[in-house]
Amino acid sequence: MDKSTPLSTPMVVRSLNVEKDPFRPPEENEKILGPEVPYLSAIGALMYLANCTRPDISFAINLLARFSSSPTQRHWNGVKHVLRYLQGTIDLGLFYPKNADDQMIGFADAGYLSDPHKARSQTGMFSLSEEPLSHGAPETNSRGHLLKPC
User: Quick one: where's region Disordered (predicted)?
Assistant: First the structure.
């Protein structure tokens, strides 16, 4: 995927219509991917990345990890979408200073009925120190391509 076309968002837009949502559970007539597709390995690697330096992909990986027992081509396409997003934002990430004695600050958010398939709400949390851990948004040109690394 290192030669793939970069994307600017970590996941496709979800639909409130359950039948059109790309993150809906597998349907009866959909083929389940076999072991030749490295779905579980990709989800595990992306979860590690989301937990360590890329919290911006956490929500998308959380959705895709729900289908680890029975992924379909639609779910695999979601994994590839995240990889293409990472390709386009390769210079973004969190930086943890070696000798940081700063206090951690946390933020939380909740989404009412953000899982329309099971009628559940979701919450999330993000922590950071008093010193900036990330470099911020990179400079891009009018087409969204990076002008210089962060």
Answer: 129-150
